[in-house]
């Protein structure tokens, strides 16, 4: 973890703020690549924070993921920049940042991680952002520019007033490669954008779940290969539910206690019911915050975080979404 200070908070669009984070001593932060995000620990104030299913009640802490949107540095970074939407449906995190944090506040962040990296080959890129999804997409555009790679960028928002970082997009070479789409001016035509992409391009899309699903479905219907489709998940997604799920038990290595997990609840919910609170964030198996060591039993992996090799090892799993393939999992808790 790194301690950082909020050195600049700036309104970028209607309901969207940017936050510049620096080391208090002016030291360097780890280098990162386009598409990377950080975990940010947020202290919820005593008043004004909504209750939510994560237990983010006043006086508690939240861990949230935010994409880095400053240009990726060649080496160590002197600052990180994130963009945050003051979401009316906030589970506590975005509202705390946008409404409670002021310049000078110290925060704790993780080192950058990248689950949305650009493909290493010099293939063209089609970048598509919806709303606050512009944050990783903007960093990607600037990294592609620096590498001399071909790309096209489409940025979609309901209204011009809700589109962030427009001044950065208007500067060369972004202006020539970028297209802006607003529902009340020139709506986005996904099929046209995909059909006009350079041959062999990879699609990178970030935005609301329905927006990303529409792009992916349209691309597949137009003959795009699945391995050329990349998406970033932000916001809450539905839990993976299987009508054939069966109950099982969790054994705690520290006490030997066994906790039943019902067919219609997650492991984290069962543990919370037993008074055991483990850190969670995305609840989708994307961020890895709740990664837990498995000492015995076979996990039923349903996450997007572990690699194929890590899943095969069966010695860790993400209890926010994964289950057991047998009657018992023994956890290092």
Automatic annotation (TrEMBL):
Ranges where the 2Fe-2S ferredoxin-type domain occurs: 248-333
SUPFAM superfamilies: 2Fe-2S ferredoxin-like, Ferredoxin reductase-like, C-terminal NADP-linked domain, Riboflavin synthase domain-like
Top-level taxon: Bacteria
Cofactor: FMN
FAD-binding FR-type domain mapped to chain residues: 1-119
GO biological process: methylation
Swiss-Prot/TrEMBL keywords: 2Fe-2S, Flavoprotein, FMN, Iron, Iron-sulfur, Metal-binding, Methyltransferase, Oxidoreductase, Transferase
Annotated GO MF terms: 2 iron, 2 sulfur cluster binding; metal ion binding; methyltransferase activity; oxidoreductase activity
Pfam families noted in UniProt: DmmA-like_N (PF22290), Fer2 (PF00111)
InterPro entries: 2Fe-2S_ferredoxin-like_sf (IPR036010), 2Fe-2S_ferredoxin-type (IPR001041), 2Fe2S_fd_BS (IPR006058), Beta-grasp_dom_sf (IPR012675), DmmA-like_N (IPR054582), FAD-bd_FR_type (IPR017927), FNR_nucleotide-bd (IPR039261), MRET (IPR050415)
Protein name: Vanillate O-demethylase ferredoxin subunit
Organism (species): Azoarcus indigens
């Amino acid at each position: 973890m790194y301690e950082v200070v909020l050195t600049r908070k700036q309104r970028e669009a209607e309901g969207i703020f940017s936050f510049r984070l620096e080391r208090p001593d002016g030291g360097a932060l780890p280098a990162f690549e386009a598409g990377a995000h950080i975990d940010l620990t947020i202290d919820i104030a005593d008043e004004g924070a909504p209750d939510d299913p994560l237990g983010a009640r006043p006086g508690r802490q939240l861990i949230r993921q935010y994409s880095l949107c400053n240009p990726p540095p060649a080496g160590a970074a002197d600052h990180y920049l994130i963009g945050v939407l003051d979401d009316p449906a906030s589970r506590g995190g975005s509202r705390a940042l946008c409404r409670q944090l002021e310049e000078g506040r110290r925060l704790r962040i993780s080192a950058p991680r990248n689950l949305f990296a650009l493909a290493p080959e010099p293939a063209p890129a089609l970048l598509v952002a919806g709303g606050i999804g512009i944050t990783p997409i903007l960093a990607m555009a600037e990294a592609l520019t620096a590498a001399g790679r071909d790309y096209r960028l489409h940025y979609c928002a309901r209204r011009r007033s809700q589109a962030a970082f427009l001044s950065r997009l208007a500067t060369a070479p972004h202006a020539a490669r970028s297209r802006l789409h607003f529902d009340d001016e020139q709506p986005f035509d996904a099929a046209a954008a995909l059909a006009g992409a350079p041959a062999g391009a990879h699609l990178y899309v970030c935005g609301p779940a329905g927006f990303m699903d529409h792009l992916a479905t349209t691309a597949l219907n137009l003959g795009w290969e699945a391995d050329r489709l990349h998406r970033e998940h932000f916001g809450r997604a539905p839990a993976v539910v299987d009508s054939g799920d069966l109950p099982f038990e969790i054994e705690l290595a520290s006490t030997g206690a066994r906790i039943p997990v019902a067919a219609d609840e997650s492991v984290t919910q069962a543990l919370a019911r037993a008074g055991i609170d483990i850190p969670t964030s995305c609840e989708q198996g994307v961020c890895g915050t709740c990664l837990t060591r498995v000492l015995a039993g076979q996990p039923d992996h349903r996450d997007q975080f572990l690699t194929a090799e890590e899943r095969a090892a069966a010695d860790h799993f993400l209890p926010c979404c994964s289950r057991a393939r047998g009657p018992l999992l023994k956890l290092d808790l």
